[in-house]
Amino acid sequence: MDVSQGLDTAKDDDQFAATVREWLADNLTGEFAALRGKGGPGREHEAFEERLAWDRHLAAAGWTCLGWPKEYGGKEATLSQQVIFHEEYARSGAPARVSHLGEELLGPTLIAFGTEEQKRRFLPGINNVSELWCQGYSEPGAGSDLAAVTTSARLDGDQWRINGQKVWTSLAHLSQWCFVVARTEPGSQRHKGLSYLLVPMDQPGIEVRPIVQLTGTSEFNEVFFDDARTDADLVVGEVGQGWSVAMGTLTFERGISTLGQQVGFARELSEIVELAERNGAASDPVIKDKLTRAWVGLQVMRAHAMRTLSSVDATGNGGEASVAKLLWANWHRGLGELAMEVAGASSLLAGDGAFGEDADLSDQQRLFLFSRADTIYGGSNEIQRNIIAERVLGLPREARP
């Protein structure tokens, strides 16, 4: 079944949800059956090539880029249809997508800020999953404080020459392109003088070094630019005005797909509850109270997302995205701690004592280890609170050196 048929013939949201469920049930079979539950944060190394094939299978059937305008290969699905798809996808146990950064971040950014030439060049490759993207934001001295970026780009004839270093670059070792925030105006400071560049990864001037994380896997990397090149016209938005484009991307990052993320959270909580019932931890009134509070927190997150989703735009000035990040990041980090508490003393040792991609970690251990970073990546708690205080509440700016 082609998604276009499902979108056009569904008379209501219930019918569309049934269409999505039917397609997923029919297609998560055969070669794709073993992919259920694979991938995701801390597990991006799992069955990557097979998940890439699955993403391309989705694309061939029209299930990618649902909310994009039809002129750019999308289906112009309604907000409720997009929400339904992400939630049904998560409930089915379908594998984590490998094309998230292109489809959910760069694609909407190009549609909002890019030139027609850029849209024609890059959107088809995102839609059909023939080109994968990574995000060149953070640096050793510019993590959540993105305005401290020092990676430079200088115009040299008909190309930009890029020098500097990015860090925590997810899937850079598997991507063909990177959207990079670089300082294009010498002597500029903070938000001024930044530009948003589209840079090919396969070139001599780029070196990618994996970073081993707490889970023993390496899904993110350091990326070094040593006279790396990209064409002069591959700037999204105006030269020197990249800050607003970068903030637009972060706003899209915290959009509709977060509801699918929350379904995944609910599945993790359900598994922890089942473990507590099996090992007797659920009889402890303190544990029972914490499990109940976790369930309540999940409902609060969903209610907030549904209430604010339609009001979030590319400016990111309303603070909704920052509130959402604070809600889910702190809740999920707490869930990781609760998972270890429910698992008990056995959670302190890996099953085989090994460390690395093949370490025999339980689901609870992997959840705990990776979720320690939830309140840091994508904008730390401190930065999100500053955004809310300064841009929404109008409080005095925090003193900066």
How would you sum up this structure, described in words?
The strands form two sheets. Strands 1-4-5-8 form a four-stranded mixed beta sheet. Helix 2 (about 15-25) runs parallel beside helix 4. Strand 6 (about 205-210) and strand 7 (about 220-230) form a beta hairpin. The relative contact order is 0.09. With about 400 residues, the protein is of the alpha+beta class. It contains twelve helices and eight strands. The chain folds into three domains: about 5-100, Butyryl-Coa Dehydrogenase, subunit A, domain 1 (Orthogonal Bundle), CATH 1.10.540; about 135-240, Beta Barrel (Butyryl-CoA Dehydrogenase, subunit A, domain 2), CATH 2.40.110.10; about 255-390, Butyryl-CoA Dehydrogenase, subunit A, domain 3 (Up-down Bundle), CATH 1.20.140. The model has no long low-confidence stretch (mean pLDDT about 85).
List the helices and strands and how they pair.
Blueprint: H1 3-9, H2 13-27, H3 48-60, H4 79-91, H5 100-113, H6 116-127, E1 133-136, E2 152-156, E3 159-170, E4 177-183, E5 194-200, E6 206-211, E7 220-231, E8 235-236, H7 242-253, H8 257-279, H9 285-308, H10 320-343, H11 363-371, H12 381-392
Parallel strand pairs: 1-4
Antiparallel strand pairs: 2-3, 3-7, 4-5, 5-8, 6-7
GO molecular function: flavin adenine dinucleotide binding; oxidoreductase activity, acting on the CH-CH group of donors
Organism: Rhodococcus tukisamuensis
Family: Belongs to the acyl-CoA dehydrogenase family.
